[in-house]
Structure prediction request, 334 residues.
Amino acid sequence: LSCTMDPAADALAAKGVIDVSDASRLATSALGGRLGAKFTVAGPLSRPSLNADATARGFRAGPVHLADGDIKASAQVVAPIKGSFPGATLAAQGKLAGLAGPDGTTLAGQNLDFDAKGMLTSDWIVDVDQAALTGQGGTVTLGQVHIDGGNVRGRLAVSLADLAGAASLVGLRLTGGAAVAGDVTTAPDGHGTTSLAASFTKLAAPATASSLDASVAALLGPAPKLDLTAAFSAEGARLTELSLAGKGLTLAGTGGYTAASDSLDAKVSLDAPDLTLLTAALGQPCAGTGEAKLTISGPAVSPRLDVAAGAKRLRLGELALTEASLEASLIDSA
Prediction:
């Protein structure tokens, strides 16, 4: 780190270098690889500019791996500083190569381009027009970001040409496209809201998929939709809506967490009105209807789970039942 300042000449020059040759020294074995950063501050004292360059080589954070990353950022004061800060423009660009999760999974592709533009106002408010990660498999965009002290709002948009990578993160093999839109708003008192809407196109299971993957694809159909809304505060969080609507499956749920009592309460219902959709997936005749309800209640460390499931006119291969029902409870006595 070095710095020179000449008030008489109205000049400033500073630079710094950070080099972490082994990231595992920063934490446990969850981290690995090499990290580096360089920054320079130069120009007139009344209107300096900041440039920074962050790099990663063979970086690992848990199951996420990054072969090579290079992000360059800059901040430029918009006018000479005379008594008060006039504001500054913000920008960042870079590339992420070989970015992958467990078993090589990706969201928008292993090689991504990053680009962001924003503004730091004279009132020290951060406004980001758009920050985007773009790859062969799609785009992840964060836009309309406004940070004013504890007031924060922003919008997330994800467009995936192939959701195979995203599906693999939850252990499924599915293909198709997906579009996700989300909003978040927070206030200085800790209260906030968030919403998310996802739609899918041409959802299917590949020919080599397991019967579970094929069953999920059959019940959801080619164009399911997912909606979620929630509110949170220092007192807890509340899921006000969770809904999944597919060709042969609907799911709905609500729930919450109360901080004062460290307790959970949630209800989820599932309805599958036409099980004939599973015939091709399971390779044998299927028919009937099915439904299930799950209730969670009690302390977060040891909640009670109550499950009720039922089926009518059920047929699975040679098995045929007019009606079947199951009720079960699980209580953790810890």
Q: What stands out?
A: The mean pLDDT is 91.
